[in-house]
Design goal:
heterodimer; A: mainly beta; seven-stranded mixed β-sheet; four-stranded antiparallel β-sheet; B: mainly beta; six-stranded mixed β-sheet
């Protein structure tokens, strides 16, 4: 969805390096999410944020941190990258104002990260 | 805890044939259910969603899915597959009250033979 952009789209880095993945959205949504996708495992939630001051850990947050700089921006950081963090990372957004909690998540194009 | 099972890792069909992708969920109450498609090198695109009401849901690209509470299933169907449907398909379940906490299945990769 062009309303959700991720930078960079591809990144190769080395073990121990700090790296930041960025997500921006123009959908006006207040909720944002970071997932990682590994072959055969589907998507797993890393962190989610329901507004600028609300950040929550997902099922696999170890080794990651996030920053919600503004409603439209949500960054994921790997403080010291390791090879098993090689994966496809997706950002998603949703709208809490959806009636009855029936918000729908919309995904960015993904960032392919390789840690050597 | 909610969970999703997609029993078929890989499916191959001929162009023009019908398609059914299976999805079984585990959740104590009425779930919110979604199907997403990921084309090669692309992000996830929402195909359709179920929150309540009519158990047969129509989506984009000619896809439909049927919610069957008795079978805890939400299978995706298409009557005639096109070569451009080759992709990976993900089923996801969200909790009633907030669809924001999604749990995804492991995906089914669809190959279409010409």
């Amino acid at each position: 969805d062009a309303d959700v952009t991720q930078t960079p789209r591809n990144r190769i880095t080395k073990t121990g390096k700090r790296i930041m993945l960025e997500c921006s959205q123009t959908k006006g949504h207040d909720r944002m999410y970071w997932y990682r996708q590994d072959p055969g495992l589907g998507l797993r939630l890393i962190y989610y944020s329901f507004d600028v001051k609300d950040i929550n850990k997902g099922e696999i947050s170890d080794g990651y941190s996030v920053s919600r700089q503004a409603q439209a921006k949500f960054s994921l950081s790997l403080e010291s990258a390791i090879p098993n963090q090689t994966a496809l990372y997706f950002c998603a957004t949703s709208d809490s104002l959806a009636v009855g909690g029936r918000d729908t998540q919309y995904f960015g194009p993904g960032t392919r990260l390789t840690v050597l | 805890a909610q969970s999703v099972t997609q029993p078929d890792i890989h499916i191959t069909v001929s162009e023009g044939a019908s398609l059914e992708l299976r999805c079984n969920y585990s959740y104590g109450a009425t779930p919110y259910l979604f199907w997403y498609v990921q084309s090669p090198g692309q992000g996830l695109q929402l195909l359709l969603k179920y929150f309540s009401g009519d158990t047969l849901v129509q989506g984009i690209k000619g896809f439909e899915a049927e919610f069957k509470r008795s079978q805890s299933s939400f299978n995706l169907r298409k009557p005639s597959v096109h070569w451009s449907d080759a992709a990976e398909y993900f089923c996801a379940v969200g909790s009633t009250g907030t669809a924001s906490k999604l749990t995804f299945g492991t995906g089914t990769r669809l190959q279409v033979m010409l």
